[in-house]
Amino acid sequence: MYSPGYVATSSRQSDAGNRLFVYEVIGLSQSTMTDGLDYSIRRSGSTFITVPLKRMNQEMRRITRMGGKIVSIKPLEGDSPLPHTEGIAKPSQSEGSGSEAVANPAPESKKTMTTTPKEKKADDIPVNIYRPKTPYIGKVLENYALVRDGGIGTVQHLTFDLSAGDLRYLEGQSIGIIPPGEDEKGKPHKLRLYSIASTRHGDFGDDKTVSLCVRQLEYENEAGEKVLGVCSTHLCNLKEGDDIAITGPVGKEMLLPPDEDANIVMLATGTGIAPFRAFLWRMFKEQHEDYKFKGLAWLIFGIPKSENILYKDDLEKMAAEFPDNFRLTYAISREQQNAEGGRMYIQHRVAENAEELWNLMQNPKTHTYMCGLKGMEPGIDEAFTALAEQNGTEWTTFQREMKKEHRWHVETY
Question: Which residues are catalytic?
Fold first, then answer.
């Protein structure tokens, strides 16, 4: 589906990167996390795993997640061991691209995460592992509709296989997608950035996938002609097994704080739900041994119709199961009315909950996030301006203070 140039670029590998090493690992046992591996797991003693040089750091992290311990690393050709290394690779270590020699080529079934690896340090933020000139070529695993019958527009949830590369990411980051073909000037299409909708562990809980929430762009030009977005249309029409050119990840503005007792206020419109899906899945759907969210997560979600509530069943299930920690508020513009009798938008919900939101935002552990169409910003600013005035201060001043404290996060488009 992509031009041969993309595939050729992604498949180039150096001789050094293909050198093989043998890991001797102890501590692995049969579990849901090791059932899909393509090497045998012994009940006791050592397991020997062959790994290419370029995959060494990633395989170390994977072995650690599964409870294993590396006791020796030797070149496949000889018997001279490498210095022993344990745990998670640091950002300065090399993580090249290439094919996966040991991991499954793709997850065979959806799995619920019951354990989690040791969390990365706060400053271990992956950025630009893959760049536009050397993108990662992944495969489409899923592409399904999120808008129900009677809703407006086309919104798809897509999941891509990452098992043949080194791409990793954190909640709140974005990836770039390079659509195939050329623009009207005969040049390759530029990449488009999309907020990641999955946690760092992916929708299957195995660290091998990344997911997006994509709305197909559709509008009329000055001549009254229907125009479809190049990249969004490409994504929405992808089939299972198709290739996809990915860059990134990028972004530090929207990262989820590591504090388990932080309060997270999320203001979303439409596909702006993507990073907040990642937040909420990490907080409530995944079960982590070393991350137990104890604060309040409050999502105020603006959509035009009930049929456009993306991930509705999951959101409402989490709200029912975690009433003390997750609050869900809809602003359904074409079905609900505001206090003046007009359409209900997200800023009206902010105004309705003014006192509670203001008190929450005074807490230094409260982070406020805004994601969605840029047109939401003026209304939100207006609502918060009135909110601040009622409490004897200026919104711009308070907003500036929150930015300095890294508690105000905005990503609009």
Answer: 194-195, 371, 411, 413
Cβ atoms of 1 and 243 closer than 8 Å: yes
The sign of the torsion formed by the CA atoms of 343, 349, 354, 355 equals positive
Give every residue of the chain whose pLDDT is below 50, as ranges. Answer: 1-17, 30-36, 38-44, 78-122
Backbone angles phi, psi at 317, to 5 degrees: -65, -45
Copy the structure tokens of residue 96.
Answer: 């090249």
Alpha-carbon distance 40 to 47, whole Å?
A: 8
Across all residues in the chain, what is the average pLDDT? 81
CA angle 220, 195, 305 (to 5 degrees): 55
* pTM for the structure as a whole: 0.70
In degrees rounded to 5, what are phi and psi of residue 230? -65, -55
Q: At what angle do helices 395-404 and 376-390 cross, to 10 degrees?
A: 110
Rounded to 5°, angle at Cα 386 from 382 and 387:
110
State the distance between the two ends of the chain, measured CA to CA, in whole angstroms. Answer: 28
User: How far is the C-alpha of 213 from the C-alpha of 275, rounded, in Å?
Assistant: 9
Cβ density class 339-377: b for 16+ within 10 Å, e for less: eeeeebbbbbbbbbbbeebbebbeeeebbbbbbbeeebe
- What is the CB-side half-sphere exposure of residue 325 using CA atoms within 13 A? 16
Q: How far is CA 408 from the centre of its chain?
A: 19
String of DSSP letters for 152-208: SS-EEEEEEE-TTS-----TT-EEEEE-SSB-TTSSBPPPEEEEB-S-TTTTTTSS-
Phi, psi at 307, each rounded to 5°? -70, -15
CA–CA separation, 304 vs 116, rounded Å?
37
